[in-house]
């Protein structure tokens, strides 16, 4: 039995062009998927970031109140620092890389502080003020990111 | 290098810390007329302090805004930190919706009112009875 040879109605150069265009289409599809993901993240950030900044500000204000009565309110302060660390971590998916790197350092510092708040070094209120300062610094950075998003 | 906003936040946090540690003190005064002249605004509480030769003003500022959609005025409030000269002219001010600024205002207000001492004193009277 002889082999069956299928012949195309189109000339070879059309078939080659078709293959090439399909390949290009595949890469364009990948690029579109990547851009859609970025747009989705940007919309999520625009919706979530202002609320997150508000919640972080509340934690900062509660910590400020605790600092006035130090070290009596150390445990309350620890709770607020933990909340602030969690909120910062949840913001990472919404941030551009430079801000994310900067805030990662602050978030790690807050996590460490929450873990070691009972240590002797935190008997001095000045050390706790450094933590408050870091939280306010992160709020300032997040506010700038939120402002920049309005222009995107 | 710090951005202007970061420098400002650092300044506000520093003033807050110095106030909390009683290294600077705030005094309640009448709001200077230079701030309110030509406006219908209201300043419920005005405090001043001195730090490094600079005179700071810290106050609540209530002002009217216009809602075009409903065609009516409404009151808004903000906290302002200002640097004043010897004749109470405002040389510089900042009034962003910053939690650091609100916290500074709360700390200064609590110190000025001595609320902790006041409550302790009131409770002590109850114990004597």
Name a few traits of the molecule.
heterodimer; A: 152 residues; mainly alpha; 78% helix; elongated; B: 129 residues; alpha+beta; five-stranded antiparallel beta sheet; 4 helices; 5 strands; globular
Strand and helix map with partners:
The complex is a heterodimer of chains A (about 150) and B (about 130).
Chain A: H1 12-67, H2 74-91, H3 97-116, H4 125-149
Helix pairs in contact in A: 1-2, 1-4, 2-3, 3-4
Chain B: H1 4-20, E1 27-29, H2 33-36, E2 46-51, E3 54-67, E4 72-84, E5 90-94, H3 99-113, H4 115-128
Antiparallel strand pairs in B: 1-2, 2-3, 3-4, 4-5
Structural class of chain A: mainly alpha
Distance between the termini of chain B: 60 Å
Approximately how much helix is present in the residues of chain A? over 70%
Specify the number of helices of chain B. Answer: 4
Largest sheet of chain A: none
- The Rg value of chain A, from CA coordinates, equals 27 Å
Which segments of chain B are poorly predicted (pLDDT under 50) over 5 or more consecutive residues? none
Would you count the extended β strands of chain A for me?
A: 0
The percentage of residues in β strands of chain B lies in 25-35%
Give your account of this protein's structure.
The complex is a heterodimer of chains A (152) and B (129). Chain A has helices spanning 12-67, 74-91, 97-116, 125-149. Chain A has 152 residues and is mainly alpha-helical. In chain A, α1 (12-67) runs antiparallel to α2 and α2 packs antiparallel against α3. The radius of gyration of chain A is 27 Å and the shape is elongated. The N and C termini of chain A lie far apart (66 Å). The model of chain A has no long low-confidence stretch (mean pLDDT 89). With 129 residues, chain B is of the alpha+beta class. In chain B, 39% of the residues lie in helices and 32% in strands. Chain B has helices spanning 4-20, 33-36, 99-113, 115-128, and strands spanning 27-29, 46-51, 54-67, 72-84, 90-94. A 5-stranded antiparallel sheet of chain B has the order 1-2-3-4-5, covered by helices on one side. Chain B starts with a helix and ends with a helix. The interface between A and B is medium-sized, with 21 and 20 residues.
């Amino acid at each position: 039995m002889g082999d069956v040879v299928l012949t195309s109605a189109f000339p070879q150069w059309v078939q080659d062009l078709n293959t090439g265009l399909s390949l290009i289409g595949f890469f364009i599809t990948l690029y579109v998927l990547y851009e859609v993901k970025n747009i989705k993240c940007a919309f999520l950030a625009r919706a979530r970031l202002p609320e997150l900044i508000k919640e972080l500000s509340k934690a900062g204000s509660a910590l400020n109140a605790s600092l006035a009565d130090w070290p009596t309110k150390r445990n309350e302060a620890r709770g607020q620092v933990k909340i602030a660390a969690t909120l910062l971590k949840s913001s990472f998916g919404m941030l551009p890389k430079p801000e994310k790197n900067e805030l990662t350092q602050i978030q790690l510092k807050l996590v460490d502080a929450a873990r070691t708040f009972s240590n002797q070094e935190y008997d001095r209120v000045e050390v706790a003020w450094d933590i408050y300062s870091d939280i306010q610094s992160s709020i300032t950075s997040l506010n700038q990111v939120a402002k920049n998003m309005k222009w995107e | 290098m710090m951005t202007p906003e970061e420098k400002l936040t650092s300044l506000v946090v520093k003033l807050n810390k110095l106030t909390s540690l009683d290294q600077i003190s705030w005094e309640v005064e009448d709001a200077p007329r230079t701030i309110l002249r030509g406006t219908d605004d209201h300043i419920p509480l005005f405090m001043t302090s001195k730090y490094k030769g600079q005179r700071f003003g810290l106050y609540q500022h209530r002002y009217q805004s216009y809602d075009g959609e409903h065609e009516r005025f409404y009151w808004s409030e903000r906290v302002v930190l200002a640097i004043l000269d010897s004749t109470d002219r405002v040389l510089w001010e900042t009034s962003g919706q910053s939690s650091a600024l609100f916290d500074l205002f709360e700390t200064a207000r609590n110190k000025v009112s001595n609320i902790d001492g006041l409550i302790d004193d009131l409770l002590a009277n109850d114990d004597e009875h």
